[in-house]
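Repro:
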Amino acid sequence: MNSDSVPLFINPVAGRGRARREIASIRDLLGTCGVPVEVIESTVAGDLEEKIFRASTEGADRVIIAGGDGSVHEAVNGLLRAKNNTALGVIPLGTGNDFAKACSIPLHWEDAATLLASRICDQAPVRYVDAGRMNDRFFANGAGIGFDAKINRIAHDLRLPIGDLVYLIAVFRGMWDGVITPNVRIRYDGSEYEGPVTLANVSNGPWVGGMFHIAPMAKIDDGSLDLVYVAPVDRLRILSLLPKLIKGTHINEAEVTHSAVKSFELIADEPVPSHMDGEVQPLQTEFRIELLENALRLL
């Protein structure tokens, strides 16, 4: 790699193939703005993380990721495993781009790339933001357990070029299949709950699924995570809560509990679905989540 170039990592299938269509334009725009890059593409699921881990351990002081929340998830796991304080630049090309929104990164790739190049050329100070760990994996935007993880899995299986609306369709399909309400034991920062839940979400950023404002009070750099868990609800109640969830006005509803937390533990009576940054995780019964304050350096 040219010592003057910045590694630009891309998942070609991000944004349902949008990343592949835009990568040459991104490379050219960054170069024109004074930031030469070397494009490194993902070829199979998971290798983006390994390639970014290798770049960081070999001394890269900064890397750029062009992709969606899944790509950011892999990047963050590669960087935090490497423990080398490599700074991360993000150019959003995904479906939801929840992490980019949480970090106030422009959602149009041209605006994001231009701003990123300007910051690099001006040697602007990096911005420190929080991250989280669930069991042995890291997350940037948040982790979900229960119904929202089920919705996320359905959305991943839908191949529709309709942006955020794919998650709304997934909600209706998930309700049709049935609302899961596993019995769980929850502990967080001195509080406890035992009983059934519809979902438990631990957020670093305010949005999930692009359009759902699940934790409107969450800030990516406030030194806390935001827990939102919901008591059992039926299909009709989900329909009435859905507009509030999109607007972020659901927090004071009777079924909803919210708390700012540093750590969180959930143990379920049976394996339940979960996700981190929208990435589907194996069915599990035990979830231990902790805040990693100022863990990420953003360009």
